[in-house]
Design goal:
Strand order of the largest sheet: 1-2-3-4
Order of helices and strands: EEHEHEH
Number of strands: 4
Largest sheet: 4 strands, parallel
Radius of gyration: 11 Å
Distance between the termini: 15 Å
């Protein structure tokens, strides 16, 4: 599921992976509680301050986090 600045979703969607792009204004903790993703990826279009905050949230909630700005590309198979 792609989460960007125009986020609008239904509670029925339960994605495995969330892709955060274009620095969405989202409460990631609340989004995690609602969607229960298994992994979160932040691409290079996000502000570094947002990536840092999201990384901390993912560590707290024990969800794997991948920031392409830090680690490079992410291969989804």
């Amino acid at each position: 599921m792609i989460v960007d600045e125009n986020i609008a979703f239904k509670d029925l969607i339960k994605p495995d992976i969330l892709l955060l792009t274009n620095s969405p204004k989202v409460n990631l903790e609340r989004l995690i509680d609602q969607l229960h993703p298994s992994q979160i990826i932040a691409d290079g279009t996000n502000y570094k301050s947002n990536i840092k905050k999201w990384k901390t949230t993912c560590l707290k909630t024990k969800i794997p986090f991948h920031a392409t700005a830090e680690k490079g590309f992410y291969n989804i198979r």
